[in-house]
Design a protein that fits this description.
By secondary structure, this protein is an alpha/beta fold. Helix content is 38%, strand content 22%. The protein has ten helices and nine strands. The protein is globular, with a radius of gyration of 19 Å.
C-alpha cells in the first residue's frame, strides 16, 4: 500500500527515538491525554506506541484499576518499551491494520500520538478503532498537518528529486501521509465518530545543528527519511541536506515551523 518500509529501523534509530521523543512527541502526547480526559480505572489502547514513553505515563494515570495495551509494528521499539511494562501495562508488536485480537467494545480510550500520518489507508483503521471502543468511548489523534509542511521536508524533496537520488523513487516517496483538519473531520465522521474537537496547533522544533535535524527525522521516520538509498548515496544526500540546512541556521539553531492537528472524537453511545 505504501513505499514506507518497516524494515529500515535499527537499534541505533530506536534508541535515538527514545531520547529525542521525550522532548517532543511525549509532550504533545500529554496534551492529547489531557484533552481525552483519561481517568483512573479506564482501559486504554495506544496505537503506535514507539518506545512506550506515553503509554507508561498513561498507565500511571489510569492506575492499578485501569489498563493500557500498547502496540507498535517495530519490534526494536517494542523491545525498549517492554522494559517499562508493569501489571497494568502490556506492550506487543502490532499495528492499526490488525486489531482482530481485540474484542468489540474493549476500550474506553484509543489514541494515536504522532502516528496517524504514517497510515497510508486511514478509513479501515478508523472503523476498527470504532469497533473496539465502548459506546461513548473516546478516540484521540495528534498528527502532522498536510497544509503546514516544514522546511526540512521541502529540502528533502528537492534533494531527492535530483540525480542520482531520483533513480530511487521509493526514497522520494518514503514520507508521511498527512491530512488537513477538514479531511480528518470527514474521515472521523464517516467512520461513525462524533467529533468533539479538532485543533490546529503551532509545532515549532529547533534543532541545534543540521545533523541533529537529520538524525531526528531518520529516527522518527524509522529509517524512511533516507534509508531507501544505498549507503554511499545516503551519505552524499546527507551532505547536501546538511549544506542547505546550515544556510538556515541562526544563533538559536535551525528552526522548523509546522503545525499539528489534535483531534478528539467519541463513539456514539447506543
Amino acid at each position: 500500500m505504501t513505499s514506507l518500509s518497516l524494515n529500515l529501523d535499527t537499534p541505533d534509530l530506536a534508541r535515538h527515538y527514545e531520547e529525542a521523543s521525550s522532548d517532543r512527541q511525549f509532550k504533545a502526547g500529554k496534551v492529547l491525554v489531557e484533552k481525552l480526559g483519561v481517568r483512573t480505572g479506564e482501559s486504554v489502547l495506544d496505537v503506535g506506541s514507539g518506545t512506550g514513553l506515553l503509554a507508561e505515563y498513561v498507565a500511571g494515570v489510569v492506575g492499578p484499576s485501569g489498563s493500557v495495551v500498547a502496540i507498535d509494528p517495530l519490534p526494536l521499539r517494542i523491545d525498549i518499551a517492554k522494559r517499562k511494562a508493569r501489571p497494568n501495562l502490556i506492550f506487543r508488536v502490532g499495528d492499526a491494520y490488525e486489531l482482530g485480537a481485540f474484542a468489540n467494545e474493549s476500550f474506553d480510550v484509543v489514541y494515536l500520538n504522532a502516528v496517524f500520518h504514517w497510515l497510508p489507508e486511514k478509513s479501515g483503521p478508523l472503523r476498527e478503532f470504532n469497533r473496539v471502543l465502548k459506546p461513548g468511548g473516546r478516540l484521540g489523534i495528534t498528527t502532522g498537518s498536510k497544509e503546514h509542511v516544514n522546511k526540512l521536508q521541502t529540502i528533502r524533496k528537492a534533494v531527492l528529486s535530483r540525480e542520482p537520488y531520483s533513480r530511487f523513487p521509493e526514497s522520494q516517496a518514503g514520507t508521511a501521509h498527512r491530512v488537513s483538519a477538514g479531511e480528518l473531520q470527514g474521515l472521523l465522521e464517516r467512520a461513525g465518530f462524533e467529533v468533539a474537537s479538532i485543533d490546529l496547533l503551532p509545532n515549532a522544533i529547533v534543532h541545534r545543528s543540521a545533523d541533529a535535524a537529520i538524525d531526528f527525522s531518520q529516527a522518527s521516520s524509522f529509517g524512511n527519511f533516507l534509508g531507501h538509498l544505498p549507503e554511499e548515496l545516503r551519505r552524499a544526500a546527507r551532505d547536501e541536506l546538511r549544506k542547505e540546512l546550515d544556510a538556515l541556521k541562526t544563533p538559536e539553531g535551525i528552526r522548523q515551523e509546522g503545525a499539528r492537528i489534535v483531534a478528539v472524537a467519541r463513539k456514539t453511545a447506543r
